[in-house]
Design brief:
Order of helices and strands of chain B: EEEEEEEEEEE
Shape of chain B: globular
Oligomer: heterodimer
Number of strands of chain B: 11
Helix content of chain A: under 10%
Number of helices of chain B: 0
Radius of gyration of chain B: 13 Å
Largest sheet of chain B: 7 strands, mixed
Structural class of chain A: mainly beta
Structural class of chain B: mainly beta
Strand content of chain B: over 45%
Largest sheet of chain A: 6 strands, mixed
Order of helices and strands of chain A: EEEEEEEEEEE
Number of helices of chain A: 0
Chain lengths: 112, 113
C-alpha cells in the first residue's frame, strides 16, 4: 500500500524567509503532484513532476523530485503572506487507474 | 465554465437521511474520481470510473455509498442513512485518457447533524 508522508505538518514562518516542505513516499512512482488548498476551497494544482530529477518553478515556489530516494521537496523563497495555505503532495499509484494518494498536508502560515 | 462542476456546494442533512451529489467532469474526460476529505486530512480515494464502468472502489466506500456514471458523462454519489462520520468534503476529479493530470471540482461539503 502506497503511503505518503509530509513534513512538517505545520509551518509558521516570517515574510521574507525561506523554507522547504518534504514529501516522502513508500513505493515506486514516477509522477508526483503538489497542490495548494485555501480554507474551504478545492485543490489548485501547482506542479506535476514526471521524472527523476524534475525541477519546476513558479514564482516563489520550486518543486523537485528524486524518484530514487522517493522524495519530493517544495521550496519556498522569500515567503509572502499570500502563500499562506495548506500544501499537499500526492503520488500517483501504479497501474491503469492513475488514482492519487495524498499526504496529510502542510499548513503554512506566513506572518508579516 | 469548462472546469469540473459539483452540485450542491454545501449540504446539511439530518442523520439517517439519504443524500446525493452530482459531478460534471470536463467535457471528453473519460476518467472520473471521487475523493473524500475530512478536516485536517488529505483527500482519500473513494472510487474511479473509466467511461461508465466503475473500475475500482476503496474499502472506505461502505455499503451505504453508491456511485454511478450512467452515460459516461456526469456522475452521482449517493450516501444512504447518513451518519455523523460521513461529514466531510466530497471532491470529484476528472482526467483524460493516458494518465494526464486530474482536475478537481470545488467539492461538496456535507454536514450531518
Amino acid at each position: 500500500e502506497l503511503k505518503v508522508e509530509q513534513n512538517p505538518l505545520f509551518l509558521s514562518m516570517q515574510e521574507g524567509k525561506n523554507y522547504t516542505i518534504y514529501c516522502n513516499y513508500s513505493t515506486t512512482s514516477d509522477r508526483l503532484y503538489w497542490y495548494r488548498q485555501d480554507p474551504g476551497k478545492s485543490l489548485e494544482s501547482l506542479f506535476v513532476l514526471l521524472s527523476n530529477g524534475a525541477v519546476k518553478q513558479e514564482g516563489r515556489l520550486m518543486a523537485s523530485l528524486d524518484t530514487k530516494a522517493r522524495l519530493s521537496t517544495l521550496h519556498i523563497t522569500a515567503a509572502v503572506h499570500d502563500l499562506s495555505a495548506t500544501y499537499f503532495c500526492a503520488v500517483e499509484s501504479g497501474g491503469s487507474n492513475y488514482k492519487l494518494t495524498f499526504g496529510k498536508g502542510t499548513l503554512l502560515t506566513v506572518n508579516p | 465554465d469548462t472546469g469540473v462542476s459539483q452540485d450542491p456546494r454545501h449540504k446539511i442533512t439530518k442523520r439517517g437521511q439519504n443524500v446525493t451529489f452530482r459531478c460534471d467532469p470536463i467535457s471528453e474526460h473519460n476518467r472520473l474520481y471521487w475523493y473524500r476529505q475530512t478536516l485536517g486530512q488529505g483527500p482519500e480515494f473513494l472510487t474511479y470510473f473509466q467511461n461508465e464502468a466503475q473500475l475500482e472502489k476503496s474499502r472506505l466506500l461502505s455499503d451505504r455509498f453508491s456511485a454511478e456514471r450512467p452515460k459516461g458523462s456526469f456522475s452521482t454519489l449517493e450516501i444512504q442513512r447518513t451518519e455523523q462520520g460521513d461529514s466531510a468534503m466530497y471532491l470529484c476529479a476528472s482526467s483524460a485518457t493516458g494518465g494526464t493530470e486530474a482536475f478537481f471540482g470545488q467539492g461538496t461539503r456535507l454536514t450531518v447533524v
